[in-house]
Amino acid sequence: MFPKEVSIVEVGPRDGLQNEKRTLSVDQKIELIQLLSKTGLNRIEAGSFVSPKWVPQMANSDAVFKALNPENKIHYSALTPNLRGLEAAIDAGVKEVAVFGAASESFSQKNINCSISESLKRFEAVFALANKNNIKVRGYVSCVMGCPYEGEIPPDAVTQVSKELVDMGCYEVSLGDTIGVGTPMATKLLLDDVLKEVNVSKVAAHFHDTYGQALVNLYTALGYGISSIDSAIAGLGGCPYAKGASGNVATEDVLYMLNGMGISTGVDMPTLLKASAYIAELLGRSPVSKVASALLAK
Amino acid sequence: MFPKEVSIVEVGPRDGLQNEKRTLSVDQKIELIQLLSKTGLNRIEAGSFVSPKWVPQMANSDAVFKALNPENKIHYSALTPNLRGLEAAIDAGVKEVAVFGAASESFSQKNINCSISESLKRFEAVFALANKNNIKVRGYVSCVMGCPYEGEIPPDAVTQVSKELVDMGCYEVSLGDTIGVGTPMATKLLLDDVLKEVNVSKVAAHFHDTYGQALVNLYTALGYGISSIDSAIAGLGGCPYAKGASGNVATEDVLYMLNGMGISTGVDMPTLLKASAYIAELLGRSPVSKVASALLAK
């Protein structure tokens, strides 16, 4: 039941860097994305169009996108939380965007100041403008296996918002274990529910490794036929809800597991390690990736 | 097919500490083992009877064992690589020992200076003396999914030495992914072979997390019904074959996964975290456990 191929969505330059203390310069961000573009990855989330007042790490995403080569067949996407963000993304030449919904009411209120259904309603204008401009829209659902405010989240809450995002026009929904609390059993309960309403080809797994469970949860998701996985080079990004804890699962660790399972991704490990080494040196620390740490130590 | 209960074998005080640069004092080792003894763990590998010239970290294991309370129903075991080690262990009141075999000829030669079959032959005297003294013997098989010298190891090499160890009298063989290179598929190929010859109730999984794959490999092994897992508090122990890389899978991370799967262990997480915090402070670094890092950060 495992897929033969998996599409890795590299989210390090966005979800990763936005949770790092140190803000990179535009040139450094471009260099990182260009190194990633040589690895065989063909989906890279390269920035976010949000107020730099709230997310200074993502300032100047327009300059980043303008510098990327649109001819190289890589899908560079941007997070656009609202219409204003989408307009700015279009101006910068972005061809794919992502919107951000939550499966937890408290998280939605604290994070974007409105209810889940209000947030979906606001996306209508985003989808309309995206359609008009032939821009693909991906949907994130956060807190799918737990919320920092509410604790456990019932799977059907995830299913409902996932289905609505797909119905509104998302080509894929990415299920985010935002605080990394999921386990294999929670992953099963989640997917048993979500896949009743959303076709597996439209579901991606976006798991954080805060409790070290990301790979085993991804393995569980692969068993359901999920073939789209989000990860971040060098495990970039911490967890804002547990200081000192880790965030996104590392792309290197995901690739090592997939390689070992005979699942093809098109991504080359040695080239990926160059991007790891680059960003680790910039941030002045070891990659938060056991694979990168072991291989770079050799 | 998952077991309802798993027995965790805490190997931090031996396999962990012997690979740490810093050598703990006898009192510090005793304090660590006593903290671990309060957690609900009932199998703890507490030391090793080897020459302090080769493994200075394990010097004075006799003093450690003499200080442990034999009345508290916890099985404290010791690694005894040869007859001399076993004699010293008996003098210290040890009731359970472990012997160490390899599935790789090159590793056996470089590590214990003899072939695999010679090493098994040498154990005959160890088993004889152990039997005479009513001492249980556990067997380790190292390099079960890869060798630092030979690379891949064929599963039937593991099966053969595992079967011989059981035939010689080991109540359990612990399959060690010494360099942590295993993946779920390699784990399946290994267990498909080993379990043809050795009953699953006599097989333990001892996986290192050098490449971040230990939990997903353990999850795979649990699916085969394996119900004995080795792990080390705070992920103690590095990997002598890849400097800066990590070693044993952390007990906290294993426990978190098992708890999430509804598999009982009898081990209490908050009490376990006290042992984590103690050893991390002694070694002057964070635990090599994402669970401990996340929970202690709260």
From TrEMBL, chains A, B:
InterPro entries: Aldolase_TIM (IPR013785), HMGL (IPR043594), PYR_CT (IPR000891). GO terms for biological process: ketone body biosynthetic process; L-leucine catabolic process. Its EC number is 4.1.3.4. It comes from the Bacteria. Pathway: Metabolic intermediate metabolism; (S)-3-hydroxy-3-methylglutaryl-CoA degradation; acetoacetate from (S)-3-hydroxy-3-methylglutaryl-CoA: step 1/1. NCBIfam families: PRK05692.1. Belongs to the HMG-CoA lyase family. This is hydroxymethylglutaryl-CoA lyase.
